[in-house]
Write a structure and sequence with these properties.
about 80% helix; mainly alpha; about 0% strand; about 325 residues; flat
């Protein structure tokens, strides 16, 4: 059965419509919920079956860890990595129907986790004592290496597919890598420890704006949320740990800046991330400076008003995300996965 873009292209070649009309048709249909394709019962059963298979392999790995030996353990992990990656690569980008696009995104997301697992396994086989009590820093280094490898894999797949699911996986692994790096480096609270978080936020923010420029709405909003929330909450957290009020204030300013960016970019992602940042700042300030006082009650009221303002803002922004506020001509309609 022909997809909509194929039918429209055939009409254009037959002279029934011109290129501008073809673009408008694709733009209109790209906004329609029917074109997104719902999840069928068959698809749900297939996902459940895949999870059962992965659970079985995981049980085999855990219960027969010693019996498998180094070669068996590595073979099992490589098998999962290669299989999920092959499935994801086998489905051609931009040509598959919605169920296959979702399957591709899920397969690639699982392959990112498998890459993480594979790098951990490779390092463990080289140094089986890495998880002993005397090797805490070595274990953190191991997890940092695996998380960084998974972040790079997620970045590659996100660039290729531009899906919301892979954007989420990329953001999670980027934040994990930063946290692990700071853990085994024993960074002291303050600006030196904040530098890796600023680099993390800058990378995720660039990915968000790149996804937005490519009309990948879900990926752009997931990444926008991750960047804005991480910036505000990391500043607040480090300010809290170091006892520096100015750092906490910067976290609040970062949350407000994200809310401003939400208005400028018509972005629910920035709005939600900024909302979390402002709310975190308010809670942090009220707990440390206004506990058991009249100011505590006042700050609670302010917190509620902030949340209500964010809710009303999202009520205006979310319909734009669902309906595709930006033109979709000459671009691939975005998908959550």
């Amino acid at each position: 059965m022909e997809s909509l873009p194929e039918r429209v292209e055939r009409w254009r070649k037959a002279g029934l419509i011109d290129a501008a009309q073809a673009g408008r048709i694709l733009e209109f249909e790209g906004r329609a919920p029917a074109e997104r394709g719902g999840i069928s019962v068959v698809e749900v059963i297939a996902y459940i079956g895949s999870l059962v298979v992965l659970a079985g392999l995981g049980f085999l790995y855990g219960s027969q860890f010693q019996l498998l030996g180094p070669s068996g353990r590595l073979t099992l992990v490589i098998l999962v990595t290669v299989a999920t990656l092959a499935i994801g690569l086998r489905i051609a980008a931009g040509q598959a129907r919605p169920p296959l696009r979702r399957a591709r995104a899920v397969a690639l997301a699982v392959s990112v986790i498998a890459v993480d697992w594979l790098v951990i396994q490779l390092q463990y086989e080289q140094n089986p004592q890495v998880f002993s009590r005397d090797c805490c820093d070595a274990a953190l280094q191991l997890f940092f290496n695996s998380s960084l490898a998974a972040t790079l894999a997620a970045a590659i797949f996100l660039t290729w597919t531009g899906t919301g699911l892979l954007a989420f996986v990329f953001a999670v692994y980027a934040d994990s890598s930063t946290g692990l790096f700071l853990s085994f480096q024993h960074g002291s609270p303050g600006w030196p420890a904040e530098v890796p978080w600023l680099v993390d936020v800058a990378v995720v923010l660039l990915a968000a704006e790149r996804a937005r420029s490519r009309r990948r709405r879900w990926a752009a909003e997931v990444l926008a949320y991750a960047a804005s929330a991480t910036l505000a909450l990391s500043l607040i957290s480090i300010g809290n740990a170091s006892g520096r009020l100015e750092m906490e204030l910067l976290g609040g300013v970062a949350g407000l800046a994200a809310l401003a960016a939400a208005i400028w970019r018509s972005s629910p992602g920035y709005a939600i991330g900024g909302g979390f940042g402002v709310f975190g700042f308010v809670v942090d300030i009220e707990v440390h400076y206004f506990a058991n006082s009249l100011g505590f009650a006042a700050i609670l009221v302010i917190s509620g008003l902030v949340l209500l303002a964010i809710a009303f803002g999202l009520a205006r922004l979310l319909p734009r995300l669902r309906t595709g506020h930006q033109p979709l001509a000459n671009s691939t309609p975005d998908r959550l996965t």
